[in-house]
Amino acid sequence: MNRTLYRTRIKFCGMTRAGDIRLAGELGVDAIGFVFAHGSPRRVAPAEARAMRQATAPMVDVVALFRNNSKDEVREVVRTVRPSLLQFHGEEEDSFCRSFSLPYMKAIPMGGAQPHNARALQMAFPNAAAFLFDSHAPGGSGGSGSTFNWAQIPTGLHRPFLLAGGITPENAFDAVVATLPWGVDVSSGIESEPGIKDGEKMRRFVEEVRRADCHEMS
Predict the structure, then answer these.
(1) Strand, coil or helix: what is 63?
(2) What's the distance, CA 1 to chain centroid?
(3) Helix, strand or coil for residue 183?
(4) What is the pTM of this model?
(5) Domain locations in the chain?
(6) What architecture is the 9-213 domain classified under in CATH?
(7) Which of 8, 59, 147, 207 is most buried by its number of CB atoms within 10 A?
């Protein structure tokens, strides 16, 4: 299959500096993410995210990431930051996720022993705009820098999915070619330290994903 006309979406997550957000826009990244999950080294306050949002290029989505945050906390972020998409990494149910009148993406932990079933996921989260498959174990957090067995991604999904977990400039090409995701989500793989993005890694990551998009499958 020739994938020349297929473009994998790219999301840079865990942004903490306006300069990194500007560079992401210049590189053609599709979305940037702010982390509001408690305990994350990349967590920012809603007011900080609102200020950094001004650096976002036109037509770049702003995603707000949560993990078991309260409804009031999510509402404050929605009101203050005005994200275009919500991302939930905890034990949130569909009714909670959809209660904020914004599209949402549900992260699915792939670090457990039990495989996931596409039908069960779609029944549990019928209103999810997309799923994100990450390498953390159930109850854990993302941003681990570790990969999971990509063959475990459930087949038969009727929603777009994003691949996350341990993707770097070194393995981004293989990840995209192997899984054909709607998009890829990267945080630690483009950092010099948690929350501090590395410009050269950001550039190389985008280049490798685009190289995979032009790869002809045999």
Answers:
(1) strand
(2) 26
(3) strand
(4) 0.92
(5) 9-213
(6) Alpha-Beta Barrel (3.20)
(7) 8
